[in-house]
Amino acid sequence: MSDVEKPRSHGRYSIAASARPRELMSDNPRLKGAWMARVITLFPEAFPGTLGLSLTGKALAEGLWHLETIPLRPFGIGRHRNVDDTPAGGGAGMVLRADVVAAAFDQAAIGTSPDRAKWPVVYLSPRGKPFDQSMARAWAGTEGVTMLCGRFEGVDQRVLDHYAVEEVSLGDFVLTGGEIAAQAMLDAVVRLLPGVLGNAASTEEESHSRGLLEHPQYTRPADWEGREIPPVLTSGNHAEVEKWRRAEAERLTRERRPDLWAALQDKATQ
Ligand code: SAH
What we know:
By secondary structure, the chain is an alpha/beta fold.
């Protein structure tokens, strides 16, 4: 397939890209060991998107992580590079073809570990396991991840079975494509990579990291529209501040997320 587009790289130490990412990775010591995301998509222009901004963008430019898009279209069939066809059994919409998606998975696999624990291969899907902070943490501990962004009605099941693909959902709603879900999940993972956030402590205390939602935050001005900052926060008494924050985190979690609160109680009594 001579006209298969090369995967596009984003970031400063970008690979001049290739059908053979492995070579390039070892050729470039700055890339070696950096966490990598490979995203198979019909819309590579959607990347890096918001991931190119702020802390995730800075980390990308610094080579703390790496992003490659693998455009799906060039793997399409025939003159029109068709990637989809009508669903077997009838019904509305189109389904991404197994052979087309397989060719993209094969390219994405080059130079990656076949061990799914070291390199998860994921299909963004509303049928998948709901993505959460513990999954983000687990993925941040891998070498990288391959993500398939679906479109239309989804993907031929056989290719998901064949490649042992894990289906993961951004939430209980339906998007038109997997690109936004991929970016959301990658953002959550990348900020956990070493060196990406300036203040590492902030990932330990924030919402979902201890099974609690975070306490409310305040900053200047001290008096705004007649509303004051809770006095304990300006008291300078760190122990009292901690106590207040913990109590507020517990209150918010009880009120807003009884499911998280119950899980925490279960854990405490185990
Ligand atoms: N017919 C499918 C939905 C297809 S939506 C179904 O009912 O399950 C089109 C594409 O958008 C999917 O292939 C998937 O990649 C993406 N997508 C939609 N909702 C998503 C969600 N909640 N999480 C992750 N990806 C989603």
